[in-house]
Amino acid sequence: MKGLLRLRGFFAFALLVAALPLLFPDNYFVTVVGVTIGFNVVLAVGLNLFIGYAGQISLGHAAFFGMGAYASAILTTRYGWSPWPAMGVGLVLVYLIATLISRPILKLKGHYLAMATLGFGIIVNIIMIETVEWTGGPDGMSGIPGLEIFGWAVDSDLRWYAVMAVVMLATIWLSLNIIDSRAGRALRAVHGSEVAAQTLGVDTAYTKSQIFVFAACLASLAGSLFAHQQNFISPVSFNFFFSIELVTMVVLGGLASTFGAVFGAIVLTLLPQVLVVFEDYEVLILGAILMSIMIFLPQGLFVGLVRGGKALARRLFPGLSAAAARSGAGS
Question: Does residue 142 contact residue 231 with C-beta atoms inside 8 Å?
Answer without folding.
Answer: yes
